[in-house]
Amino acid sequence: MAHITMTANEQRTHVQRAVYDATRLFFIEQGDASAQYLIGYIYFKGRGVDKDGTKAVKWLCKAADQGHLKAQVHLGMMYRLGLKVPKDGAKAVKWLRKAADQGYDQAQFQLFEMYSKGQGVPQDPVEAVKWIHKAAEQAHADAQFSLGGVYAQGAFGVSKDIVEAYKWWDLAAVQGHKNASKERDKLAQDMTAEQIAEAERRMREWALSDT
Question: Which domains does the chain carry?
Fold first, then answer.
């Protein structure tokens, strides 16, 4: 049998990999959520293994059940978009809500999208407004832009308020949202100087309260 030799670098890499695998296995067996998330992500992406949605969900669920934020969001988006699993609105909402309840603005915005459009769940204007406000208050630019539209149109049972609409579009524009400044400027054409001044005052007040 031929004797296979390794260079010093190859030996070092081999040892490092063995240590890494042993460490990862230890944390997985101990129920470490970050290790479980990593395994789920590896199966989802197919990094060094065949892609396997079933195994990805198994490990992501273990991590998510322990409150792992990234695992909850990952599962929510998998079920919302049908990524390696059948689309399931109820499961998408379940996991996105857990992440949203932890204060994750992107999960809050995703819940707004689902409830406002009835995507995978019954349309619910009350839930839609609740989550868009939470995301916008955390300076999520898309949420601020969408909330401006809600106030401009008086949508989802919210009273029409062009001053509030200007405020949220202005805040989104400051963050570089590509459509916010256009909508703000178009709205300003139908506003008085006093209304614009009030909107800008509210924006400054919001900015100060966020510091």
Answer: 24-88 (1.25.40.10), 103-211 (1.25.40.10)
